[in-house]
Amino acid sequence: MATIRKRFRADGTASYPAQIRLARDGQQVYQESQTFARKQAAQVWARRREAELDQPGAIARLSRTSVSVQDMIDRYLVEVEKARPLGKTKRGTLTAIGNSYFGGLSDTDINTQALVDYALWRMSVEGGDVQPQTAGNDLAHLGAVLSIARDAWGYHVDPLAMGGARRVLRKLGYNLKSRERDRRPTLDELEKILQHYRDMQARRPSVINMLKVVGFALFSTRRLDEITRIRWADIDEVGQRVLVRDMKNPGQKIGNDVWCYVPDEAWQILQTMPRVGDDIFPYSPESISTSWTKACKFLNIVDLHFHDLRHEGVSRLFEMAWDIPRVASVSGHRDWNSLRRYTHLRGQGDRYAQWAWLEQIVSAPVQLGAASMKWLNRRVLSH
C-alpha cells in the first residue's frame, strides 16, 4: 500500500513524497519512493506502480541483479562455441562491442534509443568513423546475442529494441545494408598487374606466385581465404571439383564445406602448382592481400580489391551464357537470388577467349620460398 505525505520545502512550497513498501511473510521485499509537486500526481503514480508491481514476477525482476552487455556477449561466445566454432569476424566484432562503452550497459538499459545511440557513436569520429554498413554489421552481430538472451538465459532484454533501432536509423537516412560492389578489373588493369608480378617473379622467384594466385582467383571465383585453404586431398580429379572448406555463408561458416566445380582455365592453373605439402597454394592470405594492395597503389589502379576478381569471374560465366545453377556450382552460392543481379550479362561473350596471359600464367614456374614452407609446416605442427 502506498503512503503519501505532505511536506514543506525551505521556501514554503508543499511537496508530496509517495512511498511504496511491499512485504512478504512479514519481511519487506521491495521499497520505492518518488516526490511530486501535486498530491493528485502522487496518487496517480502510486496507483499505476502498485498495479505494475502486482503483476506476476514483477518483484523478482526488480530484485534481480542486472547483467552487463559484456557479460551477455561473453556467455554467448562460450555457449555458441559449444555447438559450432564462430567465425573470426563475428567474434572480433562482438569482442569490440563488449570492450566499448556499450559493454558496460546493463540488460535493462538496452532499448531502441540505446541501440540507435551506439550506431551513431560508431559512425562518429570518437567511435571509429565507420560507414553505416559497418554499424549495421555491428547491430547484426549484437542482435544474435540479444535474440537469445531473454529466452535462453532470462535476461531482461526488450525483444523489439533491435527492430525499432533499425527503423529509426533508416528514417534518419542511414543505409545499413552492405552495398553491392560492381567494380570489375579492366583488361588493361589486369595487363599492368600481371606484368608487374611477372617482373617481380623474375627478380625474386621464391616470392608468392601472384600470377598463379590472381589467375586462379579470376577463373575459379574463389575468395582469397578459400584459395589458401584448398588442399590436394580435397581435389576430385574425375569430377574436376574442389572441396571448399568453411565456405562463407550467412549464419554458418565453420563446417560449411561445399564441393565446387573448377572451370577449365582454373583447373589448368591448379595442376601446375607443386605437390609439396597439404596446401595447393601455400601462401598466407594476409601476405597475398598486402601484395595486391601494394601493387595497385604502385600502378595507380584505384579502388580495385582482390575480391573483385571473384565478381569478375562470376560475371564472365554469365557472359558465356551459363545459367544460374551452373554458375552456382562454381561460385558455391546457395541462394540463387544473389546471382540474379548478374543475369543481364548473359550471352555477351567471353572476353578472356584467346587471352594471351592464360598461357603465361599456366607456364610460369613456381619456386616455394621459406615463407611458403613455413606456411605448410604450420598445418603439420597443428596436428
From TrEMBL:
UniProt signal peptide: none
Tagged with keyword Ribonucleoprotein: no
InterPro entries: DNA_brk_join_enz (IPR011010), Integrase-like_cat_sf (IPR013762), Integrase_catalytic (IPR002104)
One of the protein's GO biological processes: DNA integration
Keyword vocabulary terms for this entry: DNA recombination
Keyword Ribonucleoprotein: no
GO molecular function, one term: DNA binding
Domain Tyr recombinase: 180-355
SUPFAM superfamilies, per the entry: DNA breaking-rejoining enzymes (SSF56349)
Protein name: Site-specific integrase
